[in-house]
Amino acid sequence: MSDTNITTPTAGMTTATTPLTPVPPAAAATADPAPLGLAAFAMTTMVLSVVNAGILNAALAPTVLALALFYGGGTQLLAGMWEFRRGNTFGAVAFSSFGAFWLSYWFLATFILSAPALVAVAAQVHQGIGLYLLGWAIFTGYMTVASFRVSGAVAAVFVLLTLTFVALCIGAFAATIPSTSSWTKIGGWLGLATALAAWYASFAGVTNETFKRTVVPTWPMAPSARAH
């Protein structure tokens, strides 16, 4: 039997086995997008709510459109996509949906309300707006149920936002010009409270992450780990 095919290790050679499957590089961590999404929501909500509450003239409502397009809409939509990447279903659904809400608000105010078809039935437009707000009230209501497994800070945002949508919805159905309804003004003040709560949650998230410890409380409400 010949041994001419046997390779003998020489200096500088190794006999270590090369792995059959390459080891993939460690995935880069994705930063928490929630503080960004909450901040975008808070600022846009605050500006619109100042008008709804009657603090500023209703004619100034279009000033929120730039925020609705770029910050409340675009930035929140991006935050929602990053939440999908992190595997956070609640955050993904919430930020993606409210990003779409602000984008739809921008589109509605910029193009739809001035369309000839709606101008012809101007006296009934407030009912369409009421239906639009009713849909968002329903969505926010069931997201509020899920928020009670996130944190007290987030739950406060969703409770207040649900009340805001309900008040604005009633105001839209009750008055041909919704901005004149007392319910719309109540919705404006509730919206301001919602914006403050969202800013608090954003502040807590970015501060606690930066300091790597709990500096600003959020009162987590996650379910307890199951016993094994």
From TrEMBL:
The compartments listed are: Membrane
- Is the keyword Membrane assigned to this protein? yes
Mind telling me which residue stretches traverse the membrane in this protein? 34-56, 63-82, 102-122, 129-148, 154-174, 186-206
Please give, as recorded in its UniProt entry, the membrane topology of this protein.
Multi-pass membrane protein
Question: Which family does the record claim for this protein?
Answer: Belongs to the acetate uptake transporter (AceTr) (TC 2.A.96) family.
Domain of life where this protein originates: Bacteria
User: Is rRNA-binding tagged as a keyword?
Assistant: no
Query: InterPro entries of this UniProt entry?
Result: AceTr, Gpr1/Fun34/SatP-like
Source organism lineage? Bacteria, Bacillati, Actinomycetota, Actinomycetes, Micrococcales
Q: Which NCBIfam families match?
A: AceTr_1
Sorted keywords for this record are: Membrane, Transmembrane, Transmembrane helix
Source species, please? Terrabacter terrae
Q: What is this protein called?
A: GPR1/FUN34/YaaH family transporter
